[in-house]
Fold each of these.
Amino acid sequence: MQPLEHASTADLLCKIAGTPAAELLMKHYEDLTDLSKASLDELQHVKGIGQSKAAAIKSAFLLAQRLAREAHPESPLMDTPERVADLLREPNRAYVVENFQVVFLNTRRRMIGVQNIAQGTLDTILIHAREVFAAAIAKRSSAIILVHNHPSGDPTPSEADIKVTRDLIRAGQLLKIEVLDHIIMGRRTDERPKDYVSLRELGYFYS
């Protein structure tokens, strides 16, 4: 019997859903990222996937997300875009609409917590400074990092992304809570080796 750690994706799905259903899942969904976004109801539309198998598949993805979180220390240092992207990659991979998150930091740039502030549509999200900074004040944050996803997979910032970033920087200056960066999560491609962009690295934090 082949060790599970060497099994293919299709073989692992077979262990959960059975061979016929696993083959249909592989045909229906482009990759594991696409499959992870499927709801319980959507999974049950695949022939051979009932409520229990759909729940098992969703549970596997949720366990993977929790394992990724356990890989980080209790209060991780969030001092580079790479570390922020590593922390939030798995949760953002499963989102099918835009979700705006804030990473709250103490004076030593260690994470106090993360909160999903707002949810939007496929390409739009409405953010109010009061929601962002009310949460930051409640957590006694000295700095924050903004994060949101682009479900299209392309993390290139839009004009709206740039505007909201600059608006929040100005609001943070008034409240003495520094906005350190805005990370946009996307997906890697052959032409784009990183699955995120940092608006600070792109120069939008300087004017």
Note: Residues 74-198 form a domain with the Cytidine Deaminase; domain 2 fold (CATH 3.40.140.10).
Amino acid sequence: MHKSYKPIFFSVLIALFWMIAPAPRLWAQMGSIEGDVKDENGAPIVGGLITLDRKDIKAHYEVKTDKKGHYFHAGLPVAFYKVSLVLDGKVAFFLDNIKVPLADVVKVDIDLKKEKERAAASQPKLTKEQQEAIAKQQEDMKKFGSMKQTFEKGMELKGVAEKLPPTDPTREQTYLQAIENFKQAGELDPKQTAIFANLAESYRAIKKSDEALESYTRALTLLVEKPNPQLEANFRMNMGIIYGQADKFEQAQSEMQKAAELNPQIASKAFFNMGAMFENKNKIDEAAAAYDKAIAADPNYAQAYYRKAICLTAKASVSPDGKMVAAPGTIEAFQKYLELDPQGQFVNEAKSMVDTFSQTVETQFKAAKQPAGKGDKAAKKK
């Protein structure tokens, strides 16, 4: 008996149909994108990378343009995309929120020439004055870049020179190289206080006093527009030291006094420097007065007490009965130093001076003589 296979065949056919039937429904949720890409001269861009990034979720697709500058990408889920042209690893242009339609192709051309023209047309025309202002701004930025580079080179050289001992033969030459860089930076931007401050410090380090004072003065002039009391105080104190080294005591005192008034926090240091300046020139009274000012500004300034005591030591006298008489305040100054800095550098010297002023000193020494009685008896025996 012959059996019919038709029912079996149709059953298999129907099963296969239902297995492949969902595929068209899936493809129906997809779309495609294509377009032509041209450079700023209107020529096709060959091998340009087109990236497609979904906006709703993180999904990334890529395609390159062909020899005609054309690109095509199918099978994209229906969504909004950011379409970017990437040249040499950088995004040259992009279009945002491009919708890929259902079962259709969206055409997205990129013409850099037209985009450039469109951008230029959308910008307002600048007046001659505005164009000149922009040109000046660009030139200023260029100068600033050069100034910054030159200044930083000067700072580098100055830092090297500061670490060299004074006896090193390369020290002065290194400072001179730093000075040249600071001078060039000052020519590029003459309104930078830091340039002239570091120029002054470099001149001062190699004992070029006139140049250092001139540079500090230039820096002070710039601070008129942008006041900075602490910075000005530092400049004036350094100027005071330079004037003192040149025996210009009136100018030195004036600058130190201004430094103390501008920044009370460094007043004690300013007056101490003034005292050291006078002391080095053997102006004892003036030095002691300056140390008193340093102590008034900072009652715990141990070194000021010691230097004051040393100055007063020079005013000691000897009494008729052979006592070393200290000038008023000498012993107290030494004792205060010992109290404030019991492990200080000059502790032994201070203790020795206190002991000296506390003892009787014979200023005249008489030759030893026999008692008068014995002498008389010896004479009688003869």
Note: The beta strands are 30-38, 49-54, 60-64, 70-77, 80-87, 90-99, 105-107, 110-111, 317-318, 324-325.
Amino acid sequence: MADPKAAPPASATETEITLGLLNAVHDNSAVTQRTVARELGIALGLANAYLKRCVKKGLIKVRQVPPNRYAYYLTPQGFAEKSRLTAEYLSYSFTFFRRARSQCEELFADCAEHGRRRVALAGASELAEIATLVAREFDINLVAVLDGESEGSAFHGVPVLARDATLPPVDAVIVTDLTDAQRTFDALSRRLPNVPILAPKMLRVARRAVEEAAE
């Protein structure tokens, strides 16, 4: 059983891509690398690299079929690995949701207790999605999500702004960036020295990094 206190595995993304590839091959032996890349939302070169890795591990067999095309098949080992990765991914997903929800509840409860009603999120991610759900349970107004890649759109009904955009008045910012939480935290702390920058414990953000950088 996964330890709810453990950090998310570093191979979580790798597991998701590998599982997606195995599922795609299982569903359609005539699937192409380009199709896999599009379905998984990754670069074609990365899809090719993962396919070669699966072939090398004996999870997938490749057979050339005319004219100049390839058919992919899961080996018995590939079927076993697909089942294992499915269980691992589901376990991680459940653990992640449970921990994220609990820690977001703690942060929003603290904000409400200290009268911090206007809060922004930094990073459009699965964590931010959970935060938007939890915020509804508290008297918290999410005023914006900072995420440069999605500027001008909305994230679950919350306006999305560029990371360096001028924020409307806020009482706190919660880091929800899963890609580089520490960098996001440091940048916000320097940019908004008078605004509390908060982060769920699972992101393992160190406040000392900002203080040392300023010395």
Note: The radius of gyration is 21 Å.
Amino acid sequence: MLDVIGALVFGAINMAFLVVLIGLAAIRPASKFLAFAVAGTWISLIVTIAALGGFGAGIAGPFPTPVIAFLIVVIAGTAAWLAWPAFRRAVFSIPLVALVGINGVRVAGVFFLILHAQGRLAAPFSTSAGWGDIIAGAVAIPVAALMTWKGTAPRWLLGSWNALGILDLITAIALGALSAPGTPFQVFTEAPGTNAMGTLPWVIIPAILVPLFLLTHLAIAVRLRARYTEEVRTNQPSSGLPREAAVGKIA
């Protein structure tokens, strides 16, 4: 029953991400269609591989298989950011409040705690990832509400929350890798390890959601840095929008 609920929740979260990252971007309809197609293909591929047992322990030798999917998304996103100006403009066109608000769904980190309570996921990975996501998501909600109400939020507040969110993700990635059974770098050996993260629907977290959350945090950090740089240059409050991304004002 928990797996069914998890599948419904993470399916909804995936849809929310598509709406925010693609639907709200100021890009041409054809580009949106292509982006939706690529995202849909990746999601279908992950689900298919997981259904066939392709993310099981030992499939990729000593390397945790879900981490491979995670790295593919992160590397692809980083490469697109560095090499594709149109991609950067698209990211900058997404309202900052939307990038912050989407993190509110991370309260679903409660699933980590439930899996731990059921004996399906080991500590310290489960407890750290669970409580870290719950805190980051719970804080994102009032921060996004403040941005909606006031039109902005203090840069220190956004920066502090953003750093917290990044730290949570990096800690979860590290603990997950160090808890993966069958790897030479496994440090935390409490059974059952992290095997559940290679099965449906939980594999959606490391293979899709974690890299998207991480890239979202990095985009927010760049936006905040741009706003700070412009404020220093002009000595006036700034929208934080770099010159190359003058396609709309961020909150």
Note: Residues 67-73+95-220 form one domain.
